[in-house]
Design a protein that fits this description.
Blueprint lengths: L4 H7 L24 E6 L2 E11 L6 E2 L2 H5 L6 E4 L8 H14 L6 E5 L5 E7 L7
Parallel strand pairs: 2-4
Antiparallel strand pairs: 1-2, 2-6, 3-4, 5-6
Length: 131
């Protein structure tokens, strides 16, 4: 069963150490796009994460966890402690997400936006409900 990718993703953000999403008036606030959605890959189920990356940061970290928790984020904002040269920042981003999601590094790749700050990241072997 396919659920609301954003709701499933937000409900399972325990690896960030976040509380469950805030519910206002009985409904979660909707955003225009959501931070995750399910897709199919050659290896089966997969999840696509919408990412806004900021390279050359002091530390690699998620910077909008509060907005994600409240259902107000259209993408996951990630500071990356790497330069955007020769794909170094993309490699660091994929490694950070793989570690946070508990999947092998080889299962995380840049689907779109390799040279842009706005990216779509493919996480193979994981649905948005498990992300």
């Amino acid at each position: 069963q396919k659920g609301d990718g954003q709701a499933d993703f937000l409900a399972s953000l325990d690896y960030f150490g976040l509380d469950p999403p805030v519910v206002l008036g009985g409904q979660r606030p909707k955003t225009s796009g959501g931070v995750a959605r399910d897709t199919q890959s050659s290896s089966g189920v997969a999840c696509i994460l919408s990412i806004t990356a900021k390279p050359n940061a002091r530390a690699s970290q998620i910077t909008n966890a509060s907005e994600i928790r409240r259902g107000l984020a259209d993408s996951v904002h990630v500071d990356i402690n790497a330069v955007p040269k020769d794909g170094e920042a993309n490699k660091a981003l994929c490694a950070l997400l793989a570690g946070l999601l508990g999947v092998p590094r080889a299962n995380v790749s840049v689907l779109r936006g390799g040279a842009s700050r706005t990216k779509e990241i493919l996480v193979e072997g994981m649905s948005s409900s498990a992300a």
